[in-house]
Amino acid sequence: MIKGKLTGLRAIEQEDLNQLKDWRNLPQFRRNFREVRELGSQSQLAWFNSLQTNSNRDFMFSIVELESGKLIGACGLLYINWIIRSADFSFYIGKDELYIDDEGMALDAATILINYGFENLNLHKIWMELYEFDEKKIKFFQQNFNFKTDGVLRDNCYEDGRYYNSLIISLLATDK
Which of 92, 60, 89, 59 is nearest to 73 (CA)? Predict the structure, then answer.
């Protein structure tokens, strides 16, 4: 386990899958993810199994609260490109359906993962695609970690009967 002050990151275990699936299927969460379909147990298990076969490309973690040891979310560095040393950042706090909390757990867990990416994996760039209506996450990463907007993909998401832009934001190792 990689420990911070409030949270720890550990390998995702099979017993985490039902809770992670339930959080991913929350409509208020799912609308922010590129995978918009409702996930079933079989697709969740297939995803878990793919983590084992893509272990040098996808680094996913369960986020646990150190004090209680309880699962509170998930995060990861995905689609790692080892040539340009970049990774797609995936992150949410599922506990109490928070998504991004104001209690410091999200800040702690994100800090752990960002540090792991730059210091242990020697990444150069950590990036993410966020829909423009995901204001809480955009603000969180830009204000707390200095993520910069790299670009905008126009009309790249369809939600609630209309199109929205995607923002590509990133943090370079030299920005830290």
Answer: 92
According to DSSP, the residues that pair with 73 across neighbouring strands are 63, 93
The domains of the chain are located at 2-125
What is the residue-averaged pLDDT of the chain?
Answer: 91
Q: What is the DSSP letter of 33?
A: S
**pLDDT computed for residue 151 by the predictor:** 97
Q: What is the CA radius of gyration of the chain?
A: 15
C-beta of residue 75 within 8 angstroms of C-beta of residue 113? yes
Tell me which architecture the domain covering 2-125 has in CATH: 3-Layer(aba) Sandwich (3.40)
Strand partners, 145: none
175 band by pLDDT with thresholds 50, 70 and 90: very high
Q: Which residue has the tokens 């009309």?
A: 155
